[in-house]
Amino acid sequence: MRFRDTTPELPSPSRRKRWRSITLRLWCVPLLLFAELALIVAISTLFALSRQRTGFVEIGFEERSLDFSTFPGAVRWGQGLLWTALPVFTIGLYKLFRDAVIAALVVETPYIELARSSPDKPVEARKSIYLDYRTSFAIVACWKAWKNKHYILSICLVLSFVEALGLVPLTARLFAAREELLPKEATVNVLSTFDTSAPLADTNYGSLMDAVSASWVNESPLPRGTDGDFAFSQIAPMQHEGNFTVSAPTNASRLTMDCAEVPTSLTSITLVEETDSFVTVRFSATDRGCDIEGSIPTETDGNDFLEATLTSNCSETAGRLRIGFFYGAMSTTGVLTNSTLVSCIPSYWSAHGILTVVNTNNTLSGRVVETPKFNATGHDLQDLGITAQQFEDGVMTVQTFNPATSSVGNTNAPLRLAELVVRRIETLGQSYSADTLIDAVNLVYPAIYTMLAVTYFYPELATPVAVTGTLAVPQNRLHVVPPVAISMLVILVILFASTAYLISYLGYHPSILAEEPVGLLGAASLLRGSNIADILEKFHQKGEFDGRLSRELHENSNNNNEKQKEKKKKKRLDDQLKEKVCWIVRGERPHELIIMMDGRNDSHDMNGGSAGGEDDSQGPLNEAASRMLNGQTTTRNGRAAGGEKYDRVPGHEQDQAQEREAVYELGMEPASRPELGPGLGPRQAQRAIPSPSPIQTPLPTPSPDISGQYYDYGSSYSNGYRHTSVDGGFVTETSTSVPTTVPGGMRRKPVQSNNKNIGYGYGYETYH
After folding, report:
1. Of 144, 420, 433, 745, which sits with the fewest C-beta atoms within 10 Å of its C-beta?
2. Which residues fall in a compositionally biased region of kind Pro residues (predicted)?
3. What CA dihedral angle connects 640, 645, 649 and 655, to 10 degrees?
4. C-alpha to C-alpha distance for 722 and 662, rounded to whole angstroms
């Protein structure tokens, strides 16, 4: 695409009009800087809001989508497309913008390099006129730009890789949806309160122990109204359906056990033989100031046993009662081989704190599942009085039938309380010791009381009690993923810094372009007046040249070591061409800039690493001047472009050998040479003149109707066959060479001088 100004501007002598790609202009690159700043601010703001508000926006659970097809299983485009495709689309637009800026910088870098050159400070051709980063892969172009000291371009290309392979992929995971509970103040109904006035005479303790066996011993779901440690009231929000989390202040009740092992030295054990296979084990001990005793019948078959006892006649100072657990193992000879006695003091507590209930509707089963948790903030001892005694006595009345043959093993536990303790130890695969007994008792006995409280001490109220609590409804909120956001911010900050430096760089580094170089015509316009075409002509004159300047040269070597050949750097046809220097000179008109290239030492043998014949030390600027003034292109030895194979014309060899004409011209002394033309510096003036010593005359501009390479000027005559060339604006004639022919034939043509005194001579005019 070509971008042109709508109003033409004539260049003034004081200021030359400069062109720059629209993406590199000083009003466009700041837009890229502003876009990067906007992305940094947007991501930072969303990241802060996401952390502060647990997600920066609610997106809901309902799928909002468009059906592109109605058949079953058709793709449904949900809201996820909004927070995945939109960020990627935004970053994609930014990437296109930045890539356009970098692409323009890649194109204009050689022209910027030329703008910094001068005859006193030339630049190498490989860094300017013989440079195009677009022909290389991006990763190779990065290395080339750094090697050529185009550091800002190299950095920008590297950052383009980071942008494409890092920034864009990360954008797809910048946002993520997650369910959150955001509590808010609400009115909560308390559906039941603690009340111990319920009669316990008809309490079915066996069913309570069955629930303990299922939920606590075998770890099934807990019943409603307990979290495993506390029994509490039931609460619910005033109006809400579905999933929710409700919290409210309430009181709870629990029982704890203070258990300790009674030392063997304080325990008295007596064995009473009842029959040959049965004995009665009697034990007595003192625990923390309270005397406890009990007995258990057991078989002398090598099995063990566990007995639970209740002692309720302890003093007030020692505690009201003791619940004891005696474990022993009998040998087949009727000897007690092992015994452990654990004594516990129960305590009843009233706790106050915050009750939180998570209500979940199971869509598969249709059941409502409550998951409560009570966070106690304080505890108070509670005296249940007769209720406590009824509970303690009732637990000890539940018996088991033949427990030794049950699934728990061979441990004899006549009471159901002891049997639950045995089941807990066996379920965990533990051995019997004082510690395992204490852990099992601390789980089982309080659980029985918790089931009693849930069933009898929290009756449902006829009128719920309204209290102020909190209600948290699950919300599907959109979050900013922290690692992704931080990584993107780091990349964007680096890109922002590089763009800011690029703006400064472009302000101080203009290019030589006056307009957009469009195609081959644009390149030809840039090279008008340049000597580059004459230098390249030497490559084309050789018959071996196949059109490739970068063609690899094959060297003749007697070394048969292929590995050494591979390690050796390969020579190419354009190696010396890359090392040449070039510069910019001012033309006669204010807008005119001429690209000049050093033409010395440019002879090469194409087969051995060079591309030309003998070196006459003649500078390329003189040949360029000759081409511009005379309108034809010849080589230094007088041959026309095309090579030696065009020197002969079939049927004319004899004629060419005989037709030698004298050219009569006026000679001038070297001291009377006029000044050099525009753009021709001291280098051309100091070049050596080919031998034999030539006669030089100033070269005036020929008339429009006169063309050809050889002209006769001056008021006197000189005889001889002379070869005419241009050196620094002068005609150089050598009497030892005669111009040859070119394809198409030749003829002599008289040429009239522009001087007042007319001389006569003949020159050769070629036809193509």
Report:
1. 745
2. 691-703
3. 80
4. 7
The secondary structure element, H or E, covering residue 629 is helix 620-630
Sort residue 679 into left (φ over 0), alpha (ψ -120 to 50) or beta: left
d(CA 643, CA 294): 130
Average pLDDT for 118-144: 87
> What is the per-residue burial (b if ≥16 Cβ within 10 Å, else e) of 94-126?
bbebbebbbbbbbbbbbbbbbbebeeeebbbbb
Task: Of 38-42, 296-300, 336-340, 348-352, give the lowest mean pLDDT range.
Answer: 296-300
Query: What's the DSSP call for residue 296?
Result: E
Burial of 643 (0-12, 13-18, 19+ CB in 10 A): middle
Q: What does the alpha-carbon distance between residue 17 and residue 38 come to, in Å, rounded to a whole number?
A: 34
Q: From the centroid of its chain, how far is CA 290?
A: 73
Please indicate whether residue 442 or residue 619 has the higher confidence score (pLDDT): 442
Burial class (CB in 10 A: 0-12, 13-18, 19+), 55: buried
Q: Is 282 left (phi over 0), alpha (psi -120 to 50) or beta?
A: beta
Q: Which amino acid is at 157?
A: L
What is the average per-residue pLDDT within 273-287? 84
CB 713 within 8 A of CB 755: yes
Higher pLDDT, 353 or 64: 353
- HSE of 665, CA atoms in CB hemisphere, 13 A: 30
Q: Which pLDDT score is estimated for 125?
A: 86
> Is the pLDDT score of 149 beyond 60?
yes
The H or E element that residue 308 is part of is strand 304-311
Tell me how far apart the alpha carbons of residues 154 and 146 are, in angstroms, rounded to a whole number. Answer: 5
Which candidate, 154, 168, 35, 165, places its Cα nearest to that of 102? 154
What CA–CA distances, in Å, run from 161 to 98, 135, 266, 499, 764? 12, 17, 82, 15, 61
Statement: residue 172 has pLDDT above 80: yes
Q: Counting beta carbons within 10 angstroms of the beta carbon of residue 744, is it exposed (0 to 12), middle (13 to 18) or buried (19 or more)?
A: exposed
Question: pLDDT digit string (tens) for 203-241?
Answer: 999 999 999 999 999 989 999 999 999 999 999 898 777
Determine the longest span between alpha carbons in the chain, in angstroms.
166
DSSP state for residue 135 in the 8-state scheme: G
pLDDT above 70 for 544: yes
For the chain, the domains span 22-63+76-174+481-528, 187-403+411-475
Q: Please tell me the distance from the alpha carbon of residue 710 to that of residue 629, in angstroms, as a whole number.
A: 11
Buried b (16+ CB within 10 A) or exposed e, 546-567: eeeeeeebeeeeeeeeeeeeee
Let me know: does 92 contact 164? Beta carbons within 8 Å.
no
Amino acid (1-letter code) at residue 570: K
Give the position of tokens 């100072």: 317
**351-382 confidence digits (pLDDT tens):** 999 999 988 887 666 677 888 999 999 989 98
Cα gap 512→524, rounded to integer Å: 14
CA distances from 110 to 115, 470, 572, 591, 738 (A): 9, 70, 22, 19, 42
Confidence of residue 262 (pLDDT cuts 50, 70, 90): very high
CA 507-512-513 angle, 5° bins: 100
User: What is the full DSSP assignment across 647-706?
Assistant: S--TT-HHHHHH---------B-GGGPPPP-TT--HHHHTSPPPSSPPEEEE-PPPPTT-
The answer to whether residue 698 scores a pLDDT higher than 70 is no
DSSP per-residue letters across 568-620: SPPPBTTHHHHH-EEEEEE-SSTT-EEEEE--TT----TTTT--SS------H
Strands 267-273 and 368-381 turn out to be unpaired
C-alpha–C-alpha distance, residues 291 and 502, integer Å: 93
Structure tokens at 745: 């034939």
- Pairing verdict, β 76-77 and 66-67: antiparallel
Q: Which residue has the tokens 């409603």?
A: 224
